[in-house]
Design goal:
Elements (H helix, E strand, L loop, with lengths): L4 H33 L5 H31 L12 H29 L2 H27 L3 H36 L5 H34 L5 H22 L1 H8 L9 E2 L12 H6 L1 E2 L15
Antiparallel strand pairs: 1-2
Helix pairs in contact: 1-2, 1-7, 2-3, 2-7, 3-4, 3-5, 3-7, 4-5, 5-6, 6-7
Organism: Serpula lacrymans var. lacrymans (strain S7.3) (Dry rot fungus)
Protein name: DUF6534 domain-containing protein
Keywords: Membrane, Transmembrane, Transmembrane helix
């Protein structure tokens, strides 16, 4: 028995919406954790977190709306599946805004680490072009509401936009890794913290790039379904999760860095005689040298 066309078309959107609802819960938990533990952060950081949370709330609500439109309100109207509902288009526009905002935040960190205007500018241009392709494609779906027509119209720009997504995420992750690696000091404790940041950066860039590749594969390999929609929905949540996780991990990272190694050093019982004067047996036995060393770690507050 052949599968229902409704299942073939809407399975991706339904699975993607369920996944986004689960990840939205994680985002709410991260936002609450941030409010509880980083009340002293700069105002711009608080505005950033609040904006990301609001956008993710809108993104989740719109995802629920278009699934309700197709699977509940038009349950007995399969022809409705041939048309793009407005909430689906707006959902992806909101997702691209979130991705662009997070990309700019990480590019700002690259600027703080390297102070390279050329590299930062190139990354901003790449992220902006990618954002333009994404919003442009979604805007086309509001004009060409028939799925078949929309797919034919945006086929090349859709693929180009997601290829740019892979390039942008990979380039940002590589730049961060290079600058973090350049800041190694040779001190085991400091290098272990940098290694932790490197691993986190690589994983973040790899996951978002991997989902962009999956979108391209699904869009090209299964043209008659909306399987690619699930990965588009989840990728938006991954950007928000990665940003909030990086902000919430600062305290634990700094606590490890601020653990000073006490090597108390006091110059005690040193002889007060001249170099040429011989030492008494008592002075020879009581000579002791101690070194007191403390390590100060300074927290850079210009984090976006």
């Amino acid at each position: 028995m052949a599968p229902s066309p409704v299942i073939a078309i809407m399975q991706g959107g339904l699975c993607g919406t369920l996944a986004t609802m689960f990840m939205y819960g994680i985002i709410c938990m991260q936002a609450f954790f941030y409010i509880q533990n980083y009340a002293s952060d700069k105002k711009r950081l608080k505005i950033l977190v609040a904006s990301i949370w609001c956008l993710e709330t809108v993104h989740t609500a719109l995802s629920i709306h278009f699934v309700e439109h197709y699977l509940i309100l038009n349950f007995y109207n399969p022809e409705a599946l041939e048309y793009v509902v407005w909430s689906m288009s707006v959902t992806y526009i909101v997702g691209f805004v979130i991705a662009f905002s997070v990309n700019l935040c990480f590019i700002w960190r690259i600027w703080l680490l390297g102070k390279s205007l050329w590299i930062s500018s190139c990354l901003v241009i790449l992220a902006t072009i990618r954002f333009g392709f994404g919003v442009g494609n979604c805007s086309m779906s509001l004009r060409y509401t028939l799925w078949a027509v929309f797919r034919d119209r945006v086929y090349p720009t859709m693929v180009a936009g997601w290829v740019l997504s892979v390039l942008a995420d990979s380039a940002i992750a590589c730049a961060l890794c290079c600058y973090l690696h350049a800041h190694r000091t040779g001190i085991r404790r400091t290098d272990s913290i940098i290694n932790r940041l490197l691993l986190y950066t690589i994983n973040t860039g790899a996951i978002t790039s991997f989902f962009a590749v999956l979108v391209i594969i699904m869009f090209l390999a299964i043209p008659d379904t909306q399987a690619f929609v699930a990965f588009v929905q989840v990728q938006s949540k991954l950007y928000a999760v990665s940003l909030l996780a990086s902000l919430n991990s600062r305290k634990s990272t700094l606590q490890k860095a601020q653990m000073a190694i006490p090597t108390d050093v006091s110059l005690a019982f040193l002889p007060t005689t001249s170099k040429s004067a011989p030492l008494s047996p008592f002075e020879k036995q009581t000579r002791r040298i101690e070194i007191h060393q403390s390590t100060d770690v300074y927290n850079h507050q210009d984090d976006p």
